[in-house]
Fold this protein.
Amino acid sequence: MEFTRNNRQLLSKIATNDRHGENSPYFDGWKAYDSNPYHPTHNPHGVIQMGLAENQLCFDLIGKWILENPDASICTAEGVDKFKDIAIFQDYHALKDFREGVAKFMGRVGGNRVVFDPNRIVTSGGATGANETVMFCLADPGDAFLVPSPYYAGFARDLRWRTGLDIVPVDCKSSDNFRITRAALEEAYEKAQRSNINVKGVIIANPSNPLGTVLDKETMRSLVGFINDKNIHLVCDEIYAATTFSSPRFISIAEIIQDMDCNCDLIHIVYSLSKDMGFPGFRVGIVYSFNDDVMHCARKMSSFGLVSSQTQFLLAAMLNDEEFVGNFLRESSKRLAKRHRVFTTGLERVGISSLKSNAGLFFWMDMRPLLKEQTVEAELELWRVIINKVKLNVSPGSSFQCSEPGWFRVCFANMDDETVHVALERIREFVLQGKEEEKDVSLSHTSKHWRKQNLRLSFSSSRLYDESLMSPAHMISPHSSIPRSPLVRART
Amino acid sequence: MGLLSRKVTCNSHGQDSSYFLGWQEYEKNPYDEVKNPKGIIQMGLAENQLSFDILESWLAKNPEAASFKRDGQSIFKELALFQDYHGLPAFKKALVDFMAEIRGNKVTFDTNNIVLTAGATSANETLMFCLAEKGDAFLLPTPYYPGFDRDLKWRTGAEIVPIVCTSSNGFKITESALEEAYQEAQKRKLRVKGVLVTNPSNPLGTTMSRNELDILVNFITDKEIHLISDEIYSGTVFSSPAFISIMEVLKDRKLENDSQVWERVHVVYSLSKDLGLPGFRVGAIYSNDPIVVAAATKMSSFGLVSSQTQFLLSAMLSDKKFTKEYLSKNHKRLQKRQNKLVSGLEKAGISCLESNAGLFCWVDMRHLLSSNTFEAEMELWKRIVYEVKLNISPGSSCHCTEPGWFRVCFANMSEDTLKLALKRLKSFVGSITINNQSHQELKNTRKKNRNNWVFRLSFQSFHDREQEER
């Protein structure tokens, strides 16, 4: 052990600190799911995964396209004549056809109000890589970015870990429907200035994760005004753009700056195919900056996370098939809208409301009435009950730095229709049971009753965790969805 | 306050170096047998293009792997969703088995200790992030791969201090060179965190001897620092001496499992050179330190290997019949090709460092320099790029301390193209030798031979050429 301690001092601070954010208690939900995953026949009482924002609704369409286009693969008889050229292609400018396909797709997703230039497209290792790369280009260690809360938990790692930057949250309140107000931005900026924190920009996700809402024109114009005033950057993570399934429409920042006085050197877009198309495994991240220096630098940095040329080739063919793309986007919207409706109306029937939303792969559920007190502790208590008793892995609002306790992000696009009904049934039962118990017990006893339940459950659940922690095979990454899939089981 | 980060405006990405400038010239005027027969032949790119037929034949025999199928079922959806940074288990298993096979199965690798990354570029940078930070340095033997300046220093803030190796002993690493580098780092107030070697070496094309490896192990033990062994070319060893991996040395010295040193040795690997698949971005870090493995695994989120690619290669590398055939045939072809380059150069009066690996030769053109300076090396290099129309890499871009050495690649072109390149080089050397001789004679007998118009003409044309370069 002495040896390990000595060796530990030889590692970098980055390797040994916690800024990757993965030691947070929020991974308890993942662990619970991993050790007891739901399966309709093998494990019908297992935990249903509702904490993973994946789009699994349109694989039939893509599967069909793949079968019909064998020449899009460099490995099939139809495509193998391209194998060598693609296998040696490591140019960080990326395949021209791929860039053109992506640019066209982004334009289409933005409602064809903007034309994206394929020569400005820079690839990266997923949006994870793209966000980190943009930070490396815009800021130095010790600088900070303003991030409206609630925000994607992964930003803690992507924006800060290896870059040495800090996040300054911008509080958004439910009273405003979590809108990003100019006042909140100014307040956060001034607070940072007073603490001698050098703010280099603002980063937003539009559509929002975890809210599932799109930004309106007014808010976007206000944001552009703000960053121009302060001469700081605006990074727009538009990863959920094509998951917008009903009005109001998604508006890209590229469209906003077309009609505004704006220093375009301050505007940068991050994009990815992981959510819109459901391809997180293919690691397609995009940096689209209006600043030439940033574009050139990000392109050089893309060497650290280029998209596999095999994947570029396949997706170039797919994205350039305009008929397929049109059909895909229409179907995807329809299916997301339906799924969203089934969940939110199902919940409304049992008195649970959620933030009105029209995009994303999740909705923002309001469980504040079920909290025994409006505190983070109470939220986490309720969360543990939902995981262990209701057996649903949802994400507590505090994991998104939400300033108000009681909100939960619930994902709906990563399961089939039957599982949706099981999940809804479980919530229904849980809420109705709670109401029954309320009737039997006086109000002053309700909180004690919850607490007793929680204590019992926490005890049993901690034993569960110990077992799972002891076996390294159960350690999954925060982003894996199928720990028991045949891919993971294979041990040939 | 600058609008952008310092990283954007500094030069640590290293892409202003001549290594990359030669590439740019090639891009402007690339050789093509039919369309541009007078264009620049690319000999600065260390790619293995000799064995694609073997890969393509495997693909033809394995249609399932090619079309996202396993046991007749489509697994497209599962692959598309698979983003677990622990990697596809079947792929990791196949990869570590392949790595062991390359090492003659003298060592085995544990899948729990391997981290997949987007190419060795990402692997090296990630390891640096784990082991070093601003104020720290890694010692690297010169000459070294120009990309290290970017991969190890740019975004990490770490520094490189050279371990100077010279032609006096075939550029081998010596104890004194190591010690000097260490002292130099101390002088620069840098904390030395480790040594990084490439074995087989880029640009030398040689495998490290057991003696060198022992020296390294002794050094890092004594100084209590890390050793990174970038073994990206391990599968390109085509003749003796056989490749000795650092892991083999540790095993032979019984340093496995219960020593500090064991946990401070890390190996980097990739399929870009051995299998010739740089476009697929398949790299790996192998470490015996669980903290490094854990940290690097999380960092791999910034550059995971595409699941589509992991799946294809897991099928390919699990086919032991294929890997055996591939490694054997590939070695033979590399050897044959290297021999062609070496003998062709010999006919032009140029020798190379004796090599047994890699996709290039370390070529000695010191005798062609007008003076023993890096200016003269640049002069010669520019002539080779612009006049002879060959893009080769000058030793200075690899931080070589002796002018006149060049790295010349041989595996990224057809045999005919190589023949043409050698032909061009031979006639260039012929002309330069005559001119050097005449230039020398002129200098010596300036006053005596002014009336000999043949010499005057040669002298004239030599100067004319210099004007063009400017």
